[in-house]
Amino acid sequence: MAKRPQPRFPEPHTEPFWEGAKQGELRYQRCAACEGVVFYPRQHCPACGADELEWLVSKGEGTVYTFSVVRQNRMPGFIDLGAYSVAYVDLDEGFRMMSGVIGVENPTTDIAIGQRVRVEFEEQEEGEYPIPLFRPIG
Ligand SMILES: [Zn+2]
Fold this sequence. Notes:
By secondary structure, this protein is mainly beta. The protein has one domain: CATH 2.40.50. It has 1 helix and 8 strands; from the N terminus they run αββββββββ. The chain has one helix at about 15-20; strands at about 25-30, 35-40, 55-60, 60-70, 85-90, 95-100, 115-120, 130-135. The chain has a 5-stranded antiparallel beta sheet, with no helix packed on it. The longest helix is centred in the N-terminal third of the chain and has 8 residues, at about 15-20. It is globular, with a radius of gyration of 16 Å. The two termini are about 25 Å apart. Zinc ion (ZN) binds near residues 31, 36, 45, 47 and 50.
């Protein structure tokens, strides 16, 4: 089981996001004033400044915008992963998030810009919050 780091609380802006992760929901925000999509979670809309952000649940599908492969990371929690990807994923609802693409044999050759992916929540050895990561579709 993976040992990726956990979020640290109290952290009022992201707690609803992580509570969603526990329920298998990828949550994001939308501004009730200007209808802009907001991610990462915030108190105020970065476009218009309103504080009327509502929470929505993404379908969890998107496209790899770009990625890199970390070949070695000596930090606890990553040392056992071997080579792993760090990817920006464009979700279909219109937000971009940094995550990773998992479930591929070789991250240097099996991930591509434009690839369709779907979120899944990886349970962690320590801590109650699963980490949202993406797996290629099909
Ligand atoms: Zn707004």
